[in-house]
Write a structure and sequence with these properties.
By secondary structure, this protein is of the alpha+beta class. The chain contains five helices and seven strands.
Length: about 170
């Protein structure tokens, strides 16, 4: 006989395994990037990203409010979900961390970032489309954001459901 949970009061034990976390970061193309405004209010937007060596990389026009906010206070947060990927729904990871705003003049970072970013985001549409996207995002006032994860909170709904007694049809 299997022991099942009696409620969902404590869901902290159903976390993503490290290999599943890496699969999620490789498959997903969008995250929610969050920061704090000058007034101390939390805000977030859906953002395209790539993961390289444990860091999440994004780009934005320098005049975006999030860029000034991150320069003022680099403490940020990112949430990635499996929704829309081949993993299905119910796998999430949230990272608290810090974000570095790389200067718009940094060609070394821009060149490698744009190539990898456009390939991940648009590679299925062919090399000409990838090159067109690189040209479009490589605007003069664009900066690269490097999110450095700290504490993480993850959840794996498959593990939660495995710990739950099957519901009886009525």
């Amino acid at each position: 006989m299997t022991d099942y949970v009696s409620d969902y009061e404590d869901v902290t034990t159903w976390t993503l395994d490290l290999d599943q976390e890496q699969v999620l970061l490789g498959l997903q193309k969008e995250c929610v990037f969050m920061w704090t405004t000058q007034a101390g209010e939390p805000v977030g937007v859906t953002h395209s990203f790539i993961e390289i060596d444990g860091r999440l990389w994004m780009t934005a026009a320098e005049e975006r409010k999030r860029v000034a906010a991150v320069r003022r206070d680099p403490r940020t947060c990112v949430c990635v979900t499996s929704t829309g990927t081949s993993m299905g729904e119910g796998k999430t990871i949230t990272y608290k961390g810090t974000t570095v705003v790389h200067p718009k003049e940094d060609r070394v970072i821009k060149d490698w970032f744009y190539a990898i970013f456009a390939e991940k985001r648009y590679g299925s549409r062919g090399p000409d489309y990838v090159q067109q996207m690189i040209t479009l995002i490589d605007s003069p006032n664009r900066v690269i954001l490097e999110f450095i994860p700290g504490k993480k909170i993850s959840h794996d709904r498959d593990k939660m459901e495995a710990a739950t007694a099957p519901l009886e049809a009525k």
